[in-house]
User: Fold this.
Amino acid sequence: MKRSLLRSACCLAFILSLPVQAQQQDGLYWLGRVVSAAHKLNYSGTFVYRNHGQEETSRITHLVDAGNEIERLEVLDGSPREVIRNNDEVRCYLPDSRVLIVEKRSHGRTFPALLSASLGGLAEHYSIRKGPISRVAERESQMVFLEPKDDLRYGQQLWVDVNTGLLLKVGMMNERNQAIETFAFTQLQIGGNIQREMLKSKFLAQSKNWRVHYVRATPSRAEDAAWLFKVQLPGFRKLAGMSYQSPSDSAANFHVVFSDGLAAISVFIETLPEKPELGALSMGAINVYRRAVGKNLLVVMGEVPQATLKKLGDGIEPKEK
Assistant:
């Protein structure tokens, strides 16, 4: 009798889990389309970024030509800024300060290419389900919800173009299910005739007289061996560890990136300034945690709850020699 009841309970639990598993697989299918579309489609459009009551409008043009990804991002509000990306080489034009920053960036993610190519572990830490059909930028979109299973990360709501899979809108949700950050296209063209000329910087000619700063980031094993990360955040894996030089510091610094496939956390280990600003700082969805360790300043930042950053940051110590 007991075996029969146990068998019945197991069968019932399995049957009840089928709709959840189907929803997750359906949601992952749409997320996979988002990853592919962002890198393989030609598109141009205008999107609005909202964060903590502030708003910024940008224009993006993306072209795939002979296997190469070329992208031009122009900020339309405030001080003019322009970013030109050719595969993993990124050129940032800052005309107000007459500076051109050139760097290699293999792990950076920008809208609409916000998702990591590796989606396999998401279902372990997020409940993923498909929502209703909605409309964004005059396009039919499929909503997808990602709800965290713990308090280490934020939830997200995505609106995916039904026809192409391109991400049209995304909202980051806090613990009270309130949007704390959104990206949304207001005008968008997918496909069509996008010429290489449209990807050139409008500051290209005048930048020949600007200061050029090359951010040299190289894979670093020495710093990896010098620092101990005592706390492992579930689901977050190390994507990169590199040495780099910032424009204001001649000394080599260390940068580590962790990601769970959706959220990303950056750890910067730099020379401690004379008057360091320590503690927590929030800028909308972006949180920052800073602490001094000997002659070094640790800066941990990301679009995750402040407690997550503190948990990781307090567990970083230099290894004993």
Notes: The radius of gyration is 22 Å. Residues 9-18 have pLDDT under 50 and may be disordered.
